[in-house]
Amino acid sequence: MNSPTSRRVPIVAGNWKMHYGPTEARDFAQSILDGLVAIPSVERVLCPPAISIAAVHAVTAGTGVWLGAQNMYFEEQGAFTGEISPLMLRGLCQYVILGHSERRHYFGETDALINRKTLAAFAHGPRPIVCVGERLEERDAGQTERVLTTQVRGSLTGLPIERLSELVVAYEPVWAIGTGRAASPQDAADAAALIRALLAEQYGAAAVVGVRIQYGGSVTAGNAGDFAALPDVDGALVGGASLKPDFIEIVRATARAKG
Ligand code: PGA
Questions:
Q1: Domains of the chain
Q2: How do residues 195-213 score in pLDDT, each as one tens digit?
Q3: Nearest residue by C-alpha to atom 7 in ligand 1
Q4: Which atom of ligand 1 lies closest to the CA of 178?
Q5: Counts of helices then strands in the chain (DSSP H, E)
Q6: How many angstroms separate the CA atoms of 171 and 189, rounded?
Q7: pLDDT at 189 > cutoff 50
């Protein structure tokens, strides 16, 4: 009999952040495409800057490699200078990263705002990859559980229970992002178990079995397999290493560990 976890398809997303304009993005995507296409057992998602999404879509369309946006607003349209609506992402992006720690900390995004965006994603289009994670001073002060509890309860409230399997949560400890200091697999496993338990409190255990939880923070080709080997971790959200062909190796290591 299949264990409940085996129903979850692993997902590895590459967050390119503010790297690669349209031409570079298209060329880079083209250069890694064959490698990614060869690993269909993992959902592969490229998240270019918004201005480059269409250029990358031109090469990924029909390949099974999905696109994600790095952010969006919750309104459908209107006078919101500089923002992108969920409707605009439809047809291009299957996913959208919401509440990344850089959005939370540099741009002041709150759990309440991230919740509105997450609800808009469920209402209109791309599947949300919602990021949570504690800062170093919070971890050192023993507050990891409190921070994750606040973020999960605040940003993931009121979601449609019957569609929770469309939700992806990325556990990204802020101190591990871009630092070369990844969390230990045990830390990632503990956080993933906590996140699932918090969701189960809100929605019931059965409804959250299909939610996928990624680990993010200094994921490399060398450590991706260790995280993917954890039963509660369903893949990775990758920053720096997704800008290089190493991304293919990360997807491959994930496929191997989950295989
Ligand atoms: P990193 O970034 O892999 O460069 O640490 C991860 C992220 O911000 O999603």
A1: 11-258 (3.20.20.70)
A2: 999 999 999 999 999 999 9
A3: 239
A4: 5
A5: 11, 8
A6: 10
A7: yes
**Is position 134 annotated as part of the catalytic site?**
no
The pTM of this model reads: 0.97
The whole-number average pLDDT for the span 152-158 is 98
Which residue type does 118 have?
T
Per-residue pLDDT of 77-108, as tens digits, reads 999 999 999 999 999 999 999 999 999 999 99
**Alpha-carbon gap, residue 56 to 30, rounded angstroms:** 8
- Both tokens of 131, joined, read 């990021």
Residues with CB under 6 Å of ligand 1 are 15, 172, 177-178, 216-219, 237-241
pLDDT at 4 over 90: no
Is 57 one of the catalytic residues? no
Catalytic residue among 43, 57, 100, 138: 100
- DSSP tag of 176: G
By the 10 Å C-beta count (0-12 exposed, 13-18 middle, 19+ buried), 206 is classed as exposed
